[in-house]
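Researcher: Last one for today. Full complex below.
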Amino acid sequence: MTAILQTNNLSIQFGGVVGASDISVTVNKGEVIGVIGANGAGKTTFVNLVTGYLKPSSGTIHYMGNDVTRLTPREITDLGIRRSFQIPQLFDEMTALDNMLTAQSVAPKVVRSFWMPLQRSDTMEIAMKRLEHFGIVDSAQQEVSMLPQGVRKILDIAMATIGEPQLVMLDEPTSGVSAEEKFEVMDIVMDAFAQQEVTVMFIEHDMELVERYAKRVLAFYNGMVIADADSRQALADPHVREYVVGKEIHRTHAPQGEN
Amino acid sequence: MNTSKDNTLRTLSIGLILVLIFGFVATDWLRFLVQMSLATFLVVLGVMLQMRAGLVSFGQGLFYCLGAYVAGMAGYFWGITDVFLLLLAGTAACLLLSVVLGFLLVRYRGIFYANFSLALSMILYGLLVKAEILGSTDGFNVPHSTFLGFAPEGETLKITIFVLTSVIVYLVAVVLHRYLSSTYGYMGDAIRQNELRVEYLGASVRSLIHKVYVIAAAISGIGGVLTAISVGHVDPDLAYWTTSGEFVFVALLSGTANVIAPIVGTFLLELLRTYAFEYAPYTWQMILGVTMLLVILFLPGGIWSIGAERRTEN
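Model: Here's the assembly. Have a good evening.
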């Protein structure tokens, strides 16, 4: 298997807080990896480091053999690494369709047609197909700020997938999506990536989803990777159970109140 | 933005025809009022373009003044009077300066962008006030224009300049409308709404803002040249911050949704100014202030937002 992403001793501090500590991870092409950890464990920091939003205080990041440690988000996007956001980053005053059209017309690996009208019949057809593919075509003409969180989330991911991505990092793709819809959303998203043979890393708190979609799991705790293994193995790891999954704590009674 | 049928081009074309007819029948002062409105309308378009990208330029007078002075100096010092050469020279000077200054300005947003642009225009103002060779605070007169060898005088000259101004403003508005419906146009909106997403889509926010700044400078320069040949005189007040403030005022008053919006706003301002000067010489700024307040309170999308929904449905 060929490595697509390699981080070596990646570290960053925010004042006294450790965001990442000596993270060395190798991701192979085509893998689907679940990233787990409690809030503040360093999952999003890891995504921010790889996608260029944060610069590490030490360590290196290699993508397809090239050093990308100091590149900007835009340069990293150009190389084929994409991300979605925990809080969807959209153009709120535009319709979902216009969001898609904008993303389409500037994304790398597609013909960037800056001077052409944005709304053309051919581009609109492609955008509508994409929205349909992700199951949100009904919201096409609605202003994005008016859409429910679940739809915004999917749109955010859909916009990140344009233009032959190689590695996609999803930051809590199902947060804000209702419990019944979670699997449906993940099925749509993961199917889309599987067709394109994209390597996927997704941050997730729902262990059911992790078990179902991830072959491999990275568990974070205090900025460190405390487990990196096959998903079943990782989820059974006593450290992971103690610090991440929290299965050791069984609270059968709520603390007694005053009355 | 909407996907409904767009009537802007048709409206602009009808507008041009009406304005041209008006130019031949109207009284001198009224024609001049419209002509000046059209010239400054271009500068307002420049302000509006930046506003759509979330940037408020309080120094658009820099390019308005530069265009006017370059046109004036070309006539005054080198005897170049051909309008098309003057337009070319004025626009080229603005393009050149904005490309250089753009590298500095693209790093700033919000109040810093506004202040920086204001400072730059005030530097030009300061330089011109000190330049005795250019008439200092009085400025200097611009020689009569010629049109590809055609050198009219008197009434014919006035009409010719009016027609030329109308046609050029029409052409710029058409091109700009086309620009706003292109990906570049939408990217302006996109930057205002979410810079982070623009970068993560793979586009450079700084380079996009740089382009917006240069385009805005170029059309403001054209407005400056047209003003210089219309008035026949240039002075440093063109770069003074209150002049730039008026452009921002009109852009806010009109709204930024469409290229036609500022035409209405510019004309209303000129009309208001003319009458206010006459009937309320000491309180006319107050009238402007109250107007602005009312627009901000009741029409946050500008005058253009009146009936915008109805237009969308059509």
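The first strand of chain B starts at residue 140 and ends at 141. Strands of chain B lie at 140-141, 233-234.
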